[in-house]
Specification:
Keywords: Amino-acid biosynthesis, Cytoplasm, Isomerase, Lysine biosynthesis. InterPro entries: DAP_epimerase_AS, DAP_epimerase_DapF. It comes from Nocardiopsis terrae. The longest helix is centred in the middle third of the chain and has 13 residues. Strands 5, 6, 7, 8, 9, 10, 11, 12, 13, 14, 15, 16 and 17 form a 13-stranded mixed beta sheet that branches. This protein has a five-stranded mixed beta sheet with strand order 4-3-2-1-18, with helices on both faces. It is mostly beta strands. 12% of the residues lie in helices and 45% in strands. The protein contains three helices and 18 strands. The model has no long low-confidence stretch (mean pLDDT 95). The protein has two domains: 136 residues, Diaminopimelate Epimerase, Chain A, domain 1 (Roll); 122 residues, Diaminopimelate Epimerase, Chain A, domain 1.
């Protein structure tokens, strides 16, 4: 089986080309592929599959994903299925161009959160239309011994974005967050952020199903939305452990711009 390895601000993925949807990805297989010692290593899997090969398996909420030819079947490193991945969409789009599967600088990628428009910028960055960001009130979590409070946000997947005082490096993300099960019945990504300059955030994230990662695209958008004045258009630079992305917020929703890189290609016998 062929594979590629890519990352977006060091949020890294194993890319599996499976045009006709022939692979049966069990949780155990995903975990092995993502294992950084016994496998290829990654925060998740991006399966590259033609949308028509999925048949009736798409949920009603993802029906607009039927428009694009290619669907991003994303799995977290623990084998669980995720609705959306902002860094993953950029890497997926870059791979489609790299592999000659799409032409042009503007196209759509299918996801479980619907079709996402992407633009390949002149400098190689990729901008993704993330759609509307849904602010759902406030909630709290316990991170190791620290309680944090923040905004409950949906960016196609659930987030708790928490502003903290002091450096985000001081926050302990070594253990899974304890969340309000009523507010987050399916769990959530938890972001901690602080504004270090006007329009500039520093952020760390504990991703549901993956642990702390070097970056999280939907988390970057969630942190920017939490920091933004309500109802105002704004642009945010968000610094994460793996680099920096830009978020544009307006009445139509959010756009996420950042780099995407393919670092290796090869074959695996792990499948």
């Amino acid at each position: 089986m062929r594979f590629a390895k890519g990352h977006g601000t060091e949020n890294d993925f194993v890319i599996l080309p499976d045009p006709e949807g022939e692979l049966q990805l069990t949780k155990e297989t995903v975990r092995l592929l993502c294992d950084r010692r016994a496998g290829i290593g990654g925060d998740g899997i991006l399966r590259v599959v033609r949308t028509r090969a999925l048949g009736e398996t798409l949920a009603p909420a993802a029906r607009t994903a039927e428009r694009p030819e290619w669907f991003m079947d994303y799995r977290n490193s623990d084998g669980s299925v995720a609705e959306m991945c902002g860094n993953g969409v950029r890497v997926f789009a870059h791979y489609l161009r790299h592999a000659g599967l799409v032409e042009g600088d503007r196209f759509e990628v299918g996801t479980r959160d619907g079709a996402k428009g992407v633009v390949v910028e002149a400098d190689g960055d990729i901008t993704v239309d993330m759609g509307r960001v849904e602010m759902q009130g406030t909630s709290s979590a316990k991170l190791a011994r620290q309680a944090v409070h923040g905004s409950q946000i949906s960016v196609g997947n659930p987030h708790l974005a928490c502003e903290v005082q002091g450096p985000v490096a001081d926050v302990d993300l070594s253990e899974p967050p304890e969340l309000d099960a009523e507010a987050f019945p399916e769990g959530a990504n938890v972001e901690v952020y602080t504004e270090v300059a006007p329009g500039v955030l520093e952020m760390r994230v504990y991703e549901r199903g993956s642990g702390e990662t070097r970056s999280c695209g939907t988390g970057i958008v969630a942190a920017a939305a939490a920091a933004a004045p309500e109802g105002e258009e704004s642009t945010w630079r968000v610094r994460v452990l793996g680099g920096e992305c830009t978020v544009y917020l307006d009445a139509s929703g959010a756009r996420l711009r950042g780099p995407a890189t393919i670092v290796a290609e090869g074959g695996t016998s792990l499948l």
